[in-house]
Specification:
This protein has helices at residues 7-15, 60-71, 75-80, 117-125, 136-150, 162-172, 175-189, 208-211, 228-252, 264-282, 288-299; strands spanning 19-26, 29-35, 40-46, 51-54, 92-98, 107-114, 155-160, 196-200, 217-221. By secondary structure, the protein is an alpha+beta fold.
Length: 304
């Protein structure tokens, strides 16, 4: 219990009537137990800068913490350290995705091939890190810098807009299996001249090994964004997600919110304006929020 409570976290919790009731060291970080007197959530803060909020899906306290962090990602630096990536000179590919947990917008998977010490140091000098710790503007500009540093031939991305995402998800059988297919496709495109692929954990049952190039050594682990190649892929994927979100927002006529909480108003607004077909174009409609918001409307007769 010797670690101090980060000032940024303590200040925010105080403003909403919550506090840290317990904290302890965990591997590569610190775990905080946060309570507002009525409910409690767990906050894992890793040395890479990654911040993970754990609690019940419908927890208001969890939602407020998620929104606070998402609203200004640079706050994560104030509670999670410098987010430095681990230097590595091994020729490798790193892959990561963006949009998986976002109700609106596409799913994007990206890969970056890093060939040796020179490229590794160059990417690291740009300040790459897990894109969730970057502001939107910085993610977009940094992605362009990454591509310029390694060359377009060493970067690949796959973007599934919501309608195609839904078709592919149903065909694969689950989101995890779809991710296995997409990450595997990226690895096949970037397998030349590399010794290993670093992949952020895809969850159980992804089947990545069935889609990856035969013989390529794969390291799949949590918090893989501490590797410079994965961090670079994270930035590229996030930038593409943000660009597509801007286009979809123009299509519906207002800015679509990010995340999967506090989106109910936007769901109903899109549905009222463009109907079910319009919603399918901009949202991952299999998320439970769709039924929660539109169940009664659709039961009364309409899909727009």
């Amino acid at each position: 219990m010797s670690d101090p409570i980060p000032r940024a976290l303590s200040g925010f919790l105080g403003s909403i009537g919550a506090a840290v009731t317990f904290h302890r060291s965990i591997e590569h970080g610190t775990q905080y137990r946060v309570s507002d007197g009525g409910e409690a959530v767990t906050l894992n803060v890793y040395s890479t800068g990654r911040v993970q909020v754990q609690g019940k899906r419908d927890s208001p306290l969890k939602a407020r913490l998620d929104d606070w962090l998402r609203g200004d990602p640079e706050r994560r630096d104030g509670i999670g350290g410098t987010s430095e990536v681990v230097p590595d000179t091994t020729p490798r590919v790193g892959t990561d995705e963006a949009g998986k947990g976002e109700y609106f917008g596409p799913l994007v998977v990206a890969g970056v091939r890093v060939l040796g010490a020179g490229q590794s140091r160059l990417i690291q000098s740009l300040g790459v890190r897990d894109s969730k710790t970057l502001t939107s503007m910085r993610a977009v500009t940094l992605a362009a810098e990454v591509i310029g540093a390694v060359g377009a031939e060493n970067v690949r991305e796959l973007t599934l807009l919501p309608r195609e995402y839904e078709e592919r998800r149903k065909g694969a059988g689950s989101v995890q299996k779809l991710l296995g297919e997409l990450h595997g496709s990226i690895l096949r495109q970037l397998e030349d001249e590399v010794d290993v692929a670093i992949v952020d954990s895809l969850g159980n049952g992804s089947g990545l090994e069935d889609h990856a190039p035969p013989g390529l050594r794969i390291q799949m682990r949590p918090r893989a964004e501490d590797d410079v190649a994965v961090a670079a892929a994270s930035v590229v994927a996030r930038a593409r997600y943000l660009e597509e979100m801007e286009l979809l927002s123009r299509k519906v006529g207002f800015e679509l919110p990010r995340g999967s909480t506090h989106v109910a108003g936007a769901v109903f607004r899109v549905y009222e304006k463009l109907g079910w077909d319009g919603l399918e174009e901009v949202a991952k409609v299999h998320f439970s929020i769709t039924e929660q918001v539109l169940g009664s409307v659709r039961d009364d007769g309409g899909r727009g």
